[in-house]
Design a protein that fits this description.
Blueprint (H helix, E strand, L loop, with lengths): L1 H35 L4 H10 L6 H20 L3 H32 L9 H26 L14 H7 L3 H14 L1 H11 L1 H22 L2 E6 L4 H13 L4 E3 L7 H11 L6 E5 L7 H8 L4 E4 L7 H4 L2 H8 L1 H8 L3 E5 L5 H10 L4 E5 L4 E9 L2 E8 L2 E7 L4 H16 L4 H9 L9 E3 L6 E5 L5 H14 L6 E5 L9 H15 L2 E5 L5 H10 L5 E5 L2 H11 L5 E5 L4 H4 L5
Helix pairs in contact: 1-4, 1-5, 1-8, 2-8, 3-4, 3-7, 4-6, 5-7, 5-8, 9-11, 10-17, 10-18, 12-15, 17-18, 19-20, 20-21
């Protein structure tokens, strides 16, 4: 019995270490996609199902090991020596090979990721808890395997007892089959780990949030809150540049627009010198903006648009509008003002919201308080004409795209609501730096003009970017588009992509479509509107499309990179 226990430990210890290593590697890879889904368990499970991102490699090895072990027991019976060889030389090594193969494949997926895992404090907590869950699950597998039946033949020669017992030992077979379940349970263990941490996470969030509230109350900057289905980040950058020319101004960086993101900015970046604090607010469901406004009550609120972006989270535009206008309610509760983009909100919804949420509005757009009179797109940027109180103002800024013309008008109107004169606004806009990855134009002598719109894929921005191709190509140049389309449009996915596919045929000469299976209506509309002058190519991945374009572009071309999907949407996940 002592020898049997020793043999079991010789297999169990290295096997357990290998299984834990596999669980760690698989957990980090799954966490990378889980993080891209913003730790939303339900959405992650849907993604897992839609992409068939279940384990294949390790499971195939394990099933094969179990079948070989079963056949060896059934066919060879009492041939102890032969059976022992098959169990020892085939089953257990195959289990090890499966775990090794699966772990290495998980690591390879992370290495090739466009949007790598960011090991934040929360991510570390989730991964650690997941490891504990998986360790417990693997322990149950080991216990169940050790309890598997071991044959009844007993040799009289005591020196042969161990061999005879092993000949009818089903433990390795049980371990192989049970490990399949453990491997397949990994993504669900990750979701469970996150769910189990929610009470602790809420306590951590509450602590940090309270610290932010106390600091905010002490500093009391003037808050400008911005939300919208699209345009909010670009408008925020433009407004930040305008206000910074007048007084020290802090804006939430990049696309930071969540409760904890804003909390972190307050705790780590807000100082007594900041007179203005521009806060981008994302709407992830009814009530989410109202919650953010309780953290940073706005003096002036800005609604850039009510549209299809993130439509799948809200289901109807009416729900989107109600969620966005929570920001106006919060400003009015403090005696503040709200700026609204008339041209970015469907007329019936605008009228409904203005009546439902009465207050001091500045309406920007055709016929509004700040009347948008038009724009001109030139090789050097935008020339925007607006009118306020009967006086026309000419705004010049080195940005591109008709949507940026509207964003500039919104930012200018918000600055006016804060008391800045037109002269200061126009001076600031003239020196406006480009916004990274949002129709960011790069010109190099002897090279094509690059238009980087990787972070701005919404229906309005997409259409505006196509027009820029016409302006920025040289006489002999071609208009080249690389795009995987858009995401999170819900029921409007097919309709919006069809509209943009038809529009693309009018503004391009070469189109590289990435992941065409995601956007079939775009491809069909593009091909239907193509008069033969547009070359359409399809690619499975962004990297392949970019490689082809870079190999074939030439001086004078204008090349538009419209959106760049994270791995969540593009990657062919094979585990």
């Amino acid at each position: 019995m002592m020898a049997e226990a020793t043999d079991a430990l010789l297999y169990l210890i290295p096997g357990a270490l290998l299984a834990l290593w596999f669980a760690y590697e698989r957990g980090k890879t799954l966490l990378m996609f889980f993080q891209q889904e913003e730790y939303d368990g339900a959405r992650f499970i849907v993604w897992l199902h839609d992409n068939r991102a279940y384990d294949q490699r390790a499971s195939l090895w394990l099933v094969a090991a179990g079948l070989i072990g079963t056949l060896s027991q059934a066919l060879l019976g009492g041939e102890a020596g032969d059976t022992l060889k098959l169990a020892g030389y085939a089953v257990l090594p195959m289990i090890a090979a499966g775990l090794l193969h699966g772990g290495l494949q998980s690591r390879a997926l992370r290495a090739g990721s466009k949007k790598p895992l960011v090991m934040t404090a929360r991510a570390k907590r989730i991964l650690s808890t997941y490891q504990l869950v998986m360790a417990g699950l693997l322990a149950l597998v080991a216990i169940a395997a050790l309890l598997a039946p071991k044959g009844t033949q007993v040799a009289l020669d005591i020196s042969q007892v161990d061999v005879a017992m092993l000949a009818y030992d089903w433990r390795a077979v049980a371990a192989a089959f049970l490990m399949v379940g453990a491997v397949q349970a990994a993504p669900f263990a990750l979701v469970f780990a996150n769910k189990s941490l929610e009470p602790a996470e809420e306590r951590v969030k509450a602590k940090f949030r309270q610290e932010a509230i106390v600091k905010f109350e002490q500093l009391k900057p003037k808050v400008i809150a911005i939300t919208g289905s699209f345009g909010k980040t670009s408008t925020k950058h433009i407004l930040h540049h305008i206000l910074e020319s007048a007084a020290p101004t802090l804006a939430t960086p990049g696309s930071v627009n969540t409760d904890m993101g804003i909390t972190r900015v307050i705790r780590e970046q807000l100082t007594p010198e900041h007179q203005f604090f521009i806060v981008e607010m994302g709407a992830y469901g009814p009530g989410s903006i109202a919650r953010l406004c309780r953290l940073t009550p706005p003096d002036v609120s800005l609604v850039t648009a009510v549209g299809a972006a993130h439509y799948e989270r809200f289901k109807t535009l009416e729900t989107v509008a109600k969620a966005k206008f929570e920001i106006a309610e919060a400003a009015f509760a403090r005696g503040g003002r709200a700026v609204v983009n008339k041209d970015g909100v469907p007329p019936h919804l605008l009228a409904e919201r203005l009546e439902a949420v009465p207050g001091d509005y500045t309406v920007v757009g055709d016929g509004g308080d700040v009347d948008f009179k038009g724009y001109e797109l030139t090789p050097d940027g935008l020339v925007v004409r607006v009118e306020e109180a009967g006086e026309e103002q000419i705004l010049r800024l080195p940005l591109y795209g008709r949507h940026q013309a509207g964003n500039a008008a919104l930012a200018a109107a918000t600055a006016r609501a804060l008391g800045l004169p037109w002269a200061a606004i126009k001076g600031a806009l003239a020196s406006m730096p480009q916004i990274r990855h949002r129709l960011e134009v790069t010109r190099t002598s002897g090279q094509p003009t690059i238009i980087n719109d990787a972070y701005n894929a919404n229906p309005v921005g997409f259409a505006a970017a196509l027009e820029v191709l016409d302006v920025l190509r040289e006489d002999s140049g071609r208009r080249i588009l690389i795009t995987p389309g858009m995401v999170e449009l819900g029921d409007m996915h097919e309709e919006e992509h069809a509209r943009l596919g038809e529009l693309t045929a009018k503004h391009t000469d070469i189109v590289a479509v990435v992941t065409p299976d995601r956007i079939p209506s775009f491809v069909r509309a593009l091909e239907g509107a193509n008069d033969g002058s547009v070359t359409v190519m399809t690619f499975a991945a962004q990297e392949a499309a970019e490689a082809w374009v870079k190999k074939n572009w030439r001086a004078g071309d204008a090349v538009l990179f419209e959106n760049n999907l994270p791995d969540l949407y593009e990657a062919k996940v094979s585990l």
